[in-house]
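subagent[fold] <- orchestrator: predict structure for attached chain, return tokens only, no commentary.
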Amino acid sequence: MGLGSLPGAALGRVVDAVLEVSVVGSFGSTGAQLRRVTGRWSSLPRLDGRSVVITGATSGIGWAAAAAMRGLGAHLTIVGRDEARTATAAARLSSIGDTTDPVAIAVADLRSLRAARAFADRFAATHAHLDVLVHNAGALTAQYGRAPEGFEQTYAAQVLSPQLITATLLPLLRAADRGRVLTVSSGGMYTQALDPTGMQLDEAHYDGVRAYALAKRAQVVLTQEWARRFPEPVQFHAMHPGWADTPGVQASLPTFRRVTRPILRTAQEGADTLVWLAGVDPIPGSNGSFWLDRTPRGTERLPGTRSTPQERAALWDQVCAQAGLDAASLG
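subagent[fold] -> orchestrator:
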């Protein structure tokens, strides 16, 4: 039987499997485009009346996701560390769609746990519920730097602060009808194993690409732990956007971009699964999944990167302690 004679759903599964094995085909623009056609993707679901908080929404995947969600009727709060850029982004977003309320902003440098806690406390004090929390902020930084509390800045911004914000806003997510926490990870996390004691690089051993990949591995593991410890009613999912042409890639990985530019996705293609997860009801598959192109994916590709339950629990305890959270009370 040839591919042309396969039923539509079966053809979609075969194409998806071939792309996934190839990596380049899966992560690049070809993967998004073929899966959209052969998988017969439905239109993105409406988000009318749903409240969404998204960090890092001034450019790239975050901007594309925020713009799409606004166009689908979401009530947005965007979080950024630069007040002028965040306000400009909010003004642009407010002109999208037919929702009349302005996009709200919060200024917080998530490299600082104090700033992350202040934002989350303010939001919790002024809102009764939250439908969708999107952890998207995070840059690949070539130079070593420390957060105000002394942690390496990549680890602080992309691991500790999201954990702190999620814990603080969990009551609001539970109060929502379909609360969900979505984390934008990266396919780069596949290159790193989970070592709870080695997730934070020191200055002598710092490498920006590895620090970023380690943080993204931690995000996926912590998503799994949130889902395991708090299975209902909130949903916790991570996704990766594939290889997308964003300002972050242009600035941080210029050689990679130069080589792969013909196959890079648009930011909108990279953001599609994130927007879809924000609105699809119910989310198919298991809570705590890791997604690419609207399909759950495995979390290990390379030998030696499989983690144990004990290692995942150790990371949870460590991150909670570093973020000033009581792990026992959380779960």
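orchestrator: received. Logging for downstream: Residues 142 and 208 are 5 Å apart (CA to CA). Residues 1-5 have pLDDT under 50 and may be disordered.
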